[in-house]
Amino acid sequence: MLKTASPTRPKSIEDLLDSQLVARLGQLDITARKVLSGKLKGERRSKRRGESVEFADHRPYAVGDDLRHIDWNIFGRLDRLFLKLFLEEEDLSLHVVIDASGSGDAGTPSKFLLMQKAAAALGYVGLANLHRVQVTAMGGLNDKAEPQLLSMIRDLRGRRRLVDLVRYLCQVEPGGPCNFTEVCRRINLTRRGKGVMVIMSDFFHKAGYDEGLRLLVGTGYEVFLLQILSPQELQPDIGGDLRLKDCEDGDTAEVTISSALLKKYQANLTAYCSRLREFAGQRGMGYQLVPSSTPVDELLMDYLRRRGLLA
Amino acid sequence: MTLLAPLIAGIAAAIAIPALVILYFLKLKRRDVEVSTTLLWKKAIEDLQANAPFQKLRNNILLILQLIALCAAIFALAQPEVKSNSLGGGRHVIVIDRSGSMSATDGGADSKPGGVTRLEAAKKKALEFVHTMREPGLLDERGDEAMVVAFDVIADRLANFTSNKAELRRAIESIEPTDAPTSFVAAFQTARAFARVTLAEDKGLITSGGATIHLFSDGRLPDLEQLGQSKDLAITAEDKIVFYPVGSPDTWNVGITGMRAERAFEEPGKLSIFVGVMNSAKEPRTVDVELRIDSRVDAIKQVTIPAARLTESTTGDEAGGIRASNKLVTSSSGVVFDMVRPQGGVFTVVVRPPEGDALAADNNGYLVVPPAKRLTVALVTDGNLFLREVLDGLPLQKLDVWSPAEAQERFKDGATPAGYDVFVLDGWLPKIRGADGKEVPGLPPGRFLVFNALSSPPLGLIDQGPGEATTVINYDRGHPALRNISFDGLTVNPSRKCSIPPRSGVRSLAEGISGPLIVEATDVGTRALIVTFDTLNSNWPFDAGFVLYTAQGLTYLGSSSGETGALVLRPGQTVEQTLPPGAANARVGLPDSSRKDLLVSAEGRVVYGPLPKVGIYTISWEGAAGGTDTLAEGRVRRIVTANLLDPYESEVAAVKADDLKSLMPSNISTGQLQAGTRRLWPWFLLLALAFVLIEWFVYNRKVVV
């Protein structure tokens, strides 16, 4: 719950991904429940017919068709021109959104560090499978340490772009407020193609998360929500007479910690998380609550594989 | 439990407790904690704060702990204490018996001989009593004060009134046992003298009552009845006495109660040692009586002492009724050691009960016997037939009879004729030079048995002319010259009216109506027994006592001629000896082999005392020796012995509290000490501190985020 005074920031790829995890990630791929059309040729089967080696169907020749695809064996037998159609393989758009606001940086272990590691891991999976990978950081601070709405890196493809992905993740400086709705609107406007979107945040947005998520749902993304909370948020271990200060907007709340208050807090937290899960479920979004103490390999291999995001 | 300062505590509580609660309620100081969001907390507060103004105080363990700590501190400020029933506050006199019977070894919890001594038990009780004394409070000076008096035959004030418990404990622990007899009167006088005088700042010394005398003793107080008999010693309503008994009433003892050496008149070489032994057990006891001469065992005799008897006595109780009680009367027996021993020596008698007994001090007796000697006596008389006949009948070495005129020639210029042990002077005294230079009848250095003549002061009496007819009212039965003499039938008519001048070396041995009848005058070189009346004006010459007195007087003076021989004293008494001229570097060797230096006065006197223990005391010096002094290791030695020889002290059975009450006047109660905590405020202060620490611990556990 407390904002970490001097959080550990990853400096290199080794800080985000260890070699054992990379080896295991190489066997995984991003899965989408629907077959989505991509933009470039990739390794995922497309709805379209394309130029892969895998036969799909025949169709009558039409003027203008590529003569190279005429099945001359059929012409010889039937004396009619038919084209051979092959399955098309396209890429998948993987959009990872992490919460770089002040609240995202709170907790021990840091929620933001887990988001960075998870984004790097998911990005690697995407890159290794020739998907188009985009990572967006909601909020955060710019080079002048001023709050910004968002930052992103996009159109990454291929393993060699992992370096760029990691560099970006390492340079994101969390802090400041997060206007979740506005961020979602901006993502919606700048989207390219369809794909899978993973949003990692604590979803403690005072303006609400409903509108923003609704914007994202309509864009054709398969949205997956990872609500990452620190152990201190899940089980507050504080006492005494306190003035609680919101690390994003500076709002304060004077409390005298008592068992009744702690029970009430727990009940409110449970209700908040349940409502988010129900909201996500009603709109076809995946949802998973993840404590920030969860190791990143457990998050990927256990949580996300169980939820069907990875296979 | 009482509170010394309830008002102060009440005021403090009235201020501090509401203040703490209000401070808690209005507390503005909050610790800032940064959180990821206040979203859920605000909602929780809104849910909880509805209609609950005291919500903050509910289930607040810190406030409860602080309130407990505050209450404990306030209660400590009230200075609570639990007192034993022996204390009523105020002034106390702790009187501890250290006499011989207090050395009996039945002071333990089982009251069996062989344990701790009664004195140790009494000191322990006294220390417990000091522990129960109320201490002065923090904010006022009222507290119990006590003084410590230890007594045997004399009373010593070891600590004056103080509330300093450490000083009182030191005084009590410094009390050493003695073998002396008991005199409660001395202790009571001392205690009351100090108990009734108070030093007031604005009034000086004032007399006040109310001090309680706490008596720690076995109750063997032989002079207790005197308290009721004497007007000066009468116990008033102000004298509250609390008795703390020690020892067991069933303890028995065997001891020496009498010891004497006698030489036969006819054959001074024949020596008899008489030893009296007593038994206070309810069964007969057979004991070995061992005689040692100069540390060598000479004879052992076995004697069976009969059992002590129970006699019934009746006493009046407090309610005016008659109470019958059985009193144990000790039985006694004697042993005589006969021997032919012309030479003297140090005789030690040791009683050895096979079972052992409770008191060791009376199992040994010491006696110094001078060598046998026939006396050379000069009689100066005008023709006293009776005196002449008596002296003729005594086994003397030589008896010269002089008329006063002849004697005057021989005592010329105040010099004493040489070659005579004792001079018997009948109605005549030699002329000596007085203080004013005139010649007056007096006593020059020497030994004199004087009849019908008064020497002039300072070593003499003030003659006030003829007195009225008298009998002997009181006399010193223990004096060697008056031993075994009865004055019951003696009548003197007329007597001589005289008085003893103050601060003189004269003491009365027998008293009549008009003044002393027989006195002993002692000076540096002079010792005299003086009969103040004319024996021919009495029926004494026809009484056997006259012969006995003359014989014993001669023996007494003769044995101490040429400086003193052996002195038998009792513990508690003081040794006062005159050493020959030129004696220096005097010191006394004690029974425990330690030595103490003595100061020799200009007249050659040395004083040591009171004697603490029975045993042999050796006074030694460098210089000339007296007649009976011995030489050893280049120093002259003179031996003095101290023996208990007190049947009452040897009968060690402790007196029951009820019996003591019947002997003493009213106002005596039996004290029972209660052990346990007395001052509670330090404990409450510690409790407050403990709760503060717990509160600190809980607070630190709660504030960790």
Could you say how many structural domains of chain A there are in total? 2
Oligomer: heterodimer
CATH superfamily of the largest domain in chain A: von Willebrand factor, type A domain
Classify the beta-strand content of chain B into a percent band: 25-35%
Radius of gyration of chain B: 37 Å
Class by helix and strand content of chain B?
Answer: alpha+beta
The stretches of 5 or more residues of chain B where confidence is low (pLDDT under 50) are: 84-88, 561-566
Number of strand segments of chain B? 40
Going by CATH, the homologous superfamily of the largest domain in chain B would be Class I glutamine amidotransferase (GATase) domain
The CATH topology of the largest domain in chain B is what?
Answer: Rossmann fold
The CATH topology name of the largest domain in chain A reads: Rossmann fold
Tell how many strands the DSSP assignment of chain A holds: 10
In the CATH scheme, the class of the largest domain in chain A would be: Alpha Beta
Q: Which CATH architecture of the largest domain in chain B would you pick?
A: 3-Layer(aba) Sandwich
- Side by side, the strands of the main sheet of chain A go 5-4-3-6-7-10
